[in-house]
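Reminder: ligand-aware prediction takes two inputs, not one.
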Amino acid sequence: MPDSIKAHEQEHLDEVVAKIKVAQTESKKRIDSAEDDEAGIRKNFVNDLRIKTDSYEGILETALSVRQQQQMLAERQNSWQHATTELSTLKRLEKKAYFARIDFQEGAKSKPETIYIGLGSFSDSPDHFLIYDWRAPISSIYYDGELGDVSYQTPDGEQTVDVQLKRQFQIEDGTIITLYDTDQTVTDQMLLSALSEHSDTKMKSIVTTIQKEQNRIIRDTGSDLLFVQGAAGSGKTAAILQRVAYLLYRYRGHLTAGQVMLFSPNQLFNDYIDQVLPELGEHNMVQMTYYQYAGRRLPKIDVETLAQRFGETNTPAQERISRLKGSLEFFDAVTGYADHLESTDMVFRNIKFNGKVFIPKEKIQEIYYSFNRNYHLSNRLQATKEALIRILNRRISSEMKTKWVEDTIQDLDREHLNALYGDEPREFESADKEFQFLARKVVMQSFGPIRKAIVRARFLSINNQYVHMLRDMPNRIELQDYHISAADWQASVEESVAKLRDHSMQLVDTTPYLYLYDKMTGKAGERDMRYVFLDEIQDYNAFQLAFLKFSFPRARFTMLGDLNQAIFTKENSRTLLQELSTMFDPDKTKVVQLTQSYRSTQQVTDFTKHILKNGEAVTAFDREGELPTVTVAADEADGLQRVIDLVKQNDAENETTAIIGKDLADCRDLTEKLREQGVAVTLIQSENQRLAPGLIVVPSFLAKGLEFDAVIVWQASASRFGADDERQLLYTICSRAMHRLSLVAVGEVSPLLSDVPTDEYEMV
Ligand SMILES: Nc1ncnc2c1ncn2[C@@H]1O[C@H](COP(=O)(O)OP(=O)(O)OP(=O)(O)O)[C@@H](O)[C@H]1O
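Here is what comes back for the chain with adenosine-5'-triphosphate:
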């Protein structure tokens, strides 16, 4: 590239930056004036108020005046907020105004145009854009096409333009470091330099190097279900985060970050990605793990944790039962069971008062089933509550005559009496009237908990109902189809009952339990949520997905996963896909496959993909690195020493290292021994812990979605990874490495490595 072009571009950049600075000054002025105005309004709030309380009109006028002042304050705050956001965008643009330039022509007759693309848009007059936001419709041609005719979507339909130049920039602090012209989508050169950076405890945005396939995910607006199958490190997570930023831009004014929800695999992952959207000038969406989502709704029950689930050793019969409970057929069966409660079998509890039955369950049942047949569960419940409140109100008068009320009133001290009188006038026609007044108050107060119990539907019994449903299931499902015997089912029901008594629950029961509860109480889901993202979909079961669809009835779903990394569901994840396809309208379902892995070097990707037997396609990105190493240590002490040597070597070369062990026990043991040897290390034990800089030890099931410069697999031995169904787990662990992968086995090395060609790793 001739120097004259660079000089010319630098000149253009300088002009743009100068205008950005002018705009910054303007925007600061607006912030100051909004602040002054606001302070002024607050100061004069009382002076400017017209307080008149002597007549109804006067009170109304005062209220209006307060309202006007509040409105003025809100307007100033709005304009303050707007100017502050604008200023922070301008500050970002000042340093790195744009990263690409496109020259194109809309038709043979129209004038050629030049646009620059950056992290936000910037114009010096209403229609004169100096920088286009990367999410603007026209910016799509930067990611999508090569030179020549390229189409892009606009709100009015498809447009085609003839692209004549694509230029990419690397700009730092207002200076162009490099620039290249390209005829490719996004040059390998730029991507390579982005990927060669070191890992961080925070993920970064990929806006300047989004790939064509990723762009399809980011800009999809038509699908109810967007399903992405992507190899490890193919940028699924990166793509959805930019997708959220895109949607917030595209639907600005109609969509807020609070209407977008991401279900992520663990809390560490939430921590890892929480800077990407703020970096793009957007608020973070709602982020939760499924466990948190379910657990939040069951505060009195200990829901099984990830570590417990991972450590579960189930008998084959329990496995089959878990498979059934996670299926779509089970979801349909629960729906059917809930529907039949409209006519029979709802379980009720007595409403009690002072330890005695106040409204017996038989009475409640009679009321509940007395309504017209076309009453569904929700209006049936509502009508029952109303009827029970009426009974309660009628009982007030009779209760007022009871002895305990009289005794209570006689024993009242001054303080309690005052509280009962409240602000009401204390003049009564007679002592009897006064007694009536107090008696009513006393009774209503003591009936408070009953009222609450009615309103909160405590007369229903979700635990008993759930157990009743489990017992009824053999009438609704052919257990033989799942190779489950009646005795096995019976045993599993007893196990669930025992757990419920103990206030605990397996994860596999949680969702059917919540679903049944929602059906019983007529909950219709959160209608406000518009986009729901599920990462690591292979670890969900079909029941959970159907439940989420039910819980967010107006949301569009984006589901991302990698069947190769199904560490919990293993082979079942394939049936999940089939079940998923029946849940959404096929015309509104889009499937995108990402096969290129960006995270790791070619050597690491090639090695890891050979661990899989019939894995989904994975293509390595052409980035050179060293071969993975496999170390076989004679005993644990020797293995520990090898690990320490590897850590030292990584430290010397500034590679952040994660040591990944199979389970928590192995990780604890290793951490202790490393500390005894003076190695500083953080052990990650639970999904709620924070990611720390420096050396970490993390169990496999918490490493999902994360990445590190260097990974040391601890105990890549036959004793830990012996069975064929551990392949996906070993693959998931190894694919966390960006540049360097070292496996340390004690004793015999895992047989799962036997298919890896010997020239793809080094024995050391
Ligand atoms: N277009 C891109 N430009 C630059 N970096 C990219 C791009 N796509 C992905 N990456 C980088 O590749 C790495 C892997 O991406 P990401 O974590 O999104 O993959 P993933 O598919 O979610 O992986 P996994 O399923 O293994 O968790 C990240 O460091 C990400 O920043």
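The mean pLDDT is 88. The two ends are 45 Å apart (CA to CA). We will return to this case in the review session.
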